Each structure stands twice: as structure tokens, then as C-alpha cells.
């Protein structure tokens, strides 16, 4: 892409491709999850990211974003947030940012590890996404850490992966 916007990460294994946006200091967002796309260079991955951008509408409802693996209310997510909890009635809508990302190859397949913090709330999250070798299944893990002096009551920590609707074929 360019010096300020890294190319999306492409994890492949077992006939599956997972293309993940890691730009803007944000948590990972899934751009493609499906059949193996083959070898793609940075220019092709950048093109896929541009193609995934929706047309600009007149409100947040008509401007859907790529699905973040941990949706955040602070980013304008209109659905159920990925993290629910609070610190005694406060710290209920964290904003994880300044995310860092690294990839590695393991015996189980390629893995993307991301780390982000919300310094005001004293929370940190680690996200791991992996396409498993052999099966092509996608595995996600997330760990939340409270670095603040006050307790944080975790209600739920739910990751997201987009599931596209498969069109039905006509029998004619």
C-alpha cells in the first residue's frame, strides 16, 4: 500500500484464504474469508481492501465497515459490542487503538497476533487469528488484561468473523 498504510495480511492454509486489514492503528478487520485466493502481492491485497470499502451513504447505517474482530462502540459499531463489561459503572465502552500486528508461521499454520490498548481505561487486548494447516479452519483467540488499579468486571468477550450468505442456485 504505502508507508502510512500497511498492506492487508493474507493468511492461507487448507484451501482457505483470510485477508485481514491492519491499518490505521485499529484492531484487525476481516476483508475476505473463503476459498484460497492464491498468491497475492501487496498491490493485489491493497486492491482487495479498496474493493471491500462500501459506497458512501448518508448515515452510519448505510456506511457499513469491514467486520472488526472485536467490534467497539467507540468506533461507531451499531451492533452488539465485542467487549461488554465495566469498572463499577464506569469504563463501559473502551476504545482499543494504537494496535500493533505481527505474523508468524507455526506448525499449525500462519498466525496474526495483534495487541492494542485503551490507556484511559487501563485495558489491553491481545487477539490471535490463525488459519489452521490441513483443515483451513479459522481460529480466533482474545485475551483482555486490566492494567488499571480498579477492578474491571468482564461480562463477555466475543470475537467476530463475517459469514457471507451463499446465494441459492436456481434449479432451472
Number of helices: 1
Quickly give the structural class.
Answer: mainly beta
CA gyration radius, whole angstroms: 17 Å
Helix content: under 10%
Look at the structure and give the mean pLDDT: 86
Q: In total, how many beta strands?
A: 10
Per the principal axes of the C-alpha atoms, what is the gross shape?
Answer: globular
Beta-strand level of the residues, as a percent range?
A: 35-45%
- List the secondary-structure elements in sequence, H or E: EEEHEEEEEEE
Low-pLDDT stretches: none
Q: Please write the CATH class name.
A: Mainly Beta
* N/C terminus separation: 44 Å
CATH topology: the name is Beta-galactosidase, Chain A, domain 5
**Strand order of the biggest β-sheet:** 1-2-3-4
The biggest sheet, with number of strands, parallel, antiparallel or mixed sense and barrel status, is: 4 strands, antiparallel
Q: State the fourth-level CATH superfamily.
A: alpha-galactosidase from lactobacil brevis
At CATH's second level, what is the architecture? Distorted Sandwich
Number of domains: 1
Walk me through this protein's architecture.
- The protein is mostly beta strands.
- The protein has one domain (9-157): Beta-galactosidase, Chain A, domain 5 (Distorted Sandwich), CATH 2.70.98.60.
- Helices cover 6% and strands 39% of the residues.
- It contains one helix and ten strands, in the order βββαβββββββ.
- The chain has one helix at 42-52; strands at 9-13, 16-21, 29-35, 67-68, 83-86, 97-106, 109-118, 123-131, 138-146, 153-157.
- It has a four-stranded antiparallel beta sheet, with helices on one face.
- The protein is globular.
- The chain starts with 8 loop residues before the first strand and ends in a 15-residue tail after the last strand.
- 26% of the residues are buried.
Amino acid at each position: 500500500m504505502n508507508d502510512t498504510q500497511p498492506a492487508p495480511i493474507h493468511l492461507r492454509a487448507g484451501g482457505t484464504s483470510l485477508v485481514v486489514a491492519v491499518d490505521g492503528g485499529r484492531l484487525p478487520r476481516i476483508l475476505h474469508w473463503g476459498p484460497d485466493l492464491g498468491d497475492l502481492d501487496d498491490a493485489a491485497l491493497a486492491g482487495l481492501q479498496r474493493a471491500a470499502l462500501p459506497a458512501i451513504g448518508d448515515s452510519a447505517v448505510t456506511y457499513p465497515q469491514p467486520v472488526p474482530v472485536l467490534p467497539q462502540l467507540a468506533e461507531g459499531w451499531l451492533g452488539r459490542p465485542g467487549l461488554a463489561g465495566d469498572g463499577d459503572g464506569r469504563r463501559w465502552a473502551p476504545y482499543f487503538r494504537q494496535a500493533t500486528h505481527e505474523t508468524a508461521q507455526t506448525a499449525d499454520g500462519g498466525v496474526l497476533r495483534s495487541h492494542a490498548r485503551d490507556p484511559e481505561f487501563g485495558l489491553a487486548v491481545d487477539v490471535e487469528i490463525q488459519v489452521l494447516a490441513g483443515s483451513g479452519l479459522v481460529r480466533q483467540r482474545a485475551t483482555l488484561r486490566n492494567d488499571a488499579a480498579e477492578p474491571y468486571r468482564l461480562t463477555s468477550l466475543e470475537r467476530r468473523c463475517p459469514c457471507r450468505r451463499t446465494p441459492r442456485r436456481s434449479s432451472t
